[in-house]
Prior knowledge:
Chain A is mainly α and about 300 residues long. Helices cover about 75% and strands about 0% of the residues of chain A. Chain B is of the alpha+beta class and about 550 residues long. Chain B: This is Oligopeptide ABC transporter substrate-binding protein. Chain B: GO terms for molecular function: peptide transmembrane transporter activity.
Amino acid sequence: xxxxxxxxxxxxxxxxxxxxxxxxxxxxxxxxxxxxxxxxxxxxxxxxxxxxxxxxxxxxxxxxxxxxxxxxxxxxxxxxxxxxxxxxxxxxxxxxxxxxxxxxxxxxxxxxxxxxxxxxxxxxxxxxxxxxxxxxxxxxxxxxxxxxxxxxxxxxxxxxxxxxxxxxxxxxxxxxxxxxxxxxxxxxxxxxxxxxxxxxxxxxxxxxxxxxxxxxxxxxxxxxxxxxxxxxxxxxxxxxxxxxxxxxxxxxxxxxxxxxxxxxxxxxxxxxxxxxxxxxxxxxxxxxxxxxxxxxxxxxxxxxxxx
Amino acid sequence: xxxxxxxxxxxxxxxxxxxxxxxxxxxxxxxxxxxxxxxxxxxxxxxxxxxxxxxxxxxxxxxxxxxxxxxxxxxxxxxxxxxxxxxxxxxxxxxxxxxxxxxxxxxxxxxxxxxxxxxxxxxxxxxxxxxxxxxxxxxxxxxxxxxxxxxxxxxxxxxxxxxxxxxxxxxxxxxxxxxxxxxxxxxxxxxxxxxxxxxxxxxxxxxxxxxxxxxxxxxxxxxxxxxxxxxxxxxxxxxxxxxxxxxxxxxxxxxxxxxxxxxxxxxxxxxxxxxxxxxxxxxxxxxxxxxxxxxxxxxxxxxxxxxxxxxxxxxxxxxxxxxxxxxxxxxxxxxxxxxxxxxxxxxxxxxxxxxxxxxxxxxxxxxxxxxxxxxxxxxxxxxxxxxxxxxxxxxxxxxxxxxxxxxxxxxxxxxxxxxxxxxxxxxxxxxxxxxxxxxxxxxxxxxxxxxxxxxxxxxxxxxxxxxxxxxxxxxxxxxxxxxxxxxxxxxxxxxxxxxxxxxxxxxxxxxxxxxxxxxxxxxxxxxxxxxxxxxxxxx
Lengths: 307, 539
């Protein structure tokens, strides 16, 4: 197990370097960041030169990348154009998005798996069919439509929630945005659980467990679910990174000042330091989430542990 | 079935959680006498000479008062902190600051507060994006050279002559100089700005009717009324809370839900419903913004006598009335000159100066374009940035107008550029091959500001590199003229040169729009389309 973890950790290094380098190059290809800083009017050449020097933009890209990575390893993510250190932006943005992601993942686990079990155990019945149709609808409707619709109905028409989330972004306020963010993945989790469960229901070990006379809930939770959840765990694990990075749409609709908001601002203002810094952290989140998924496999299925 | 009760329990928990948050609607975050308003994250640190966009400007307008202030209704520059601004030759000015003004930390506002601030603003090593505003003052070339390090710390043209008096010597005659002093870059700064800059930037201290109570970068700023404010325009509310919105649609939704008091940018998609949604609590007033199509004169094909006819033809091909009506729902007005109605007739605005060239006449348009040798390169590409401002829609509409006039549906196409930064980048590198989107928001309500920065040879915003000796001469004469009516007459003659050459095609004047909750009254937008916060009454 120890060697397995070590190998996985070493594999992360080239992925990390490659991903950050790609982002760095992409942001730099978009043009000169200083050009957009002065609004419709061009900055005067002296100020442009001065700003480029200050942000290190006058050096070749490879050198910028090396300096940047060097700084990152000492915890210095540079300064955004508004004079704030990027680490400060991260400190304000990541907790919010993490909360939102936690809410979304909880919805996925609680509602997704429950519905999955419900349908998987009653294949072909009306409950199964109607939930299948419902998940199909959820998957086919884009997130921004769901978000705007819920915002309009719950926020404006019925006045149940505030249409926007306050800067503090407490858990209570994040329930509806979290549900919107989770909606599509939630539907996938339901379908995955359902299929996986239905397949394993006919497996020999389940039949044995039932024949042994085990209570039904014990068969389902200890034997059937434990094995059926492997693909679901993979999906949810990989989804954590996707949710954090892909929250741009949801965060925009509900005015949540999280990672998506900072990334959007950074891209709009072509702020290299912000974009690369946030993406670097997101890449790390992806890698760690994937690592955790792989480790969880080993916990769920002993055959993987010893392979 | 054991799973079912679990599911029911989960659903019930979710419903309960939803109900727990259901206290939202109706209550406002502002509190008694305090209004909440939508805001955008300022792009630069909040320093007066470094703020060139409307969001940061909004705050500075609340916490600073300068020598002059532009009347929110008439846009006329009126004395604020200035007691007198004297000159005999339009080049040497003596400025006397009024007595009794203080910064909100108690420090008196003196002549030195201005001179220090201006020297800081002009200095190259401070990276101030509005430094060019000090370019008229003598010694600017030493403090802010075009290349190389600065060789002086202070502008030689500025001298403190007494506690409340200072003199300004300009490097050329500029008669409207006093009227430019209402711009925020010319605001005075307290000592703490220089002694503890980091602390000042995290919570700016000024001399205006409001003081900053708290500032959380990127999300909210709370301003409260400064009770000891010595000026005549005291705040009529207890304070303003500015909340950062990522999307004006969300801000608008919040106003509808009673969660926000004021949104100063009604999104284009909501214009259709805003009248019924807000029941008259919607303002749509002219702002000093003009949209034009600029041309690349560095491309020889656009710099010929024939191209002048082509430009005029293109202008006549555009159906401004229809585009502003259907696309912008009356929040734009077809332009008939190269300035803005906010200047007023006295200030130099001339309705109809453009004449027939700005009227929709497809037949004449086609004729002129053909006489001029057709479209340079056989087709037209209008370049714009696609990331903000819904420019795509109107560029497509303009192209559609042109194609209809020419009877060729491939004559004109839009050429989107991904980001604003890249768009500006391509413009400054002179990579435009055809017309491109140009928007001009005035710095100060003067006809000079609509002409000189845009069309004077090598001027700061002359992106198309247009150059005309007659125009330059008229501008120089207007700037040297001491009598303001004569000066404006000369500026208008210069504008005539722009018209005769169709140096840029004027499209439409832009309005400012705002919507507000029933708690507010006396809401108005100033000529810069910023709400006049201190006049708003709550409750």
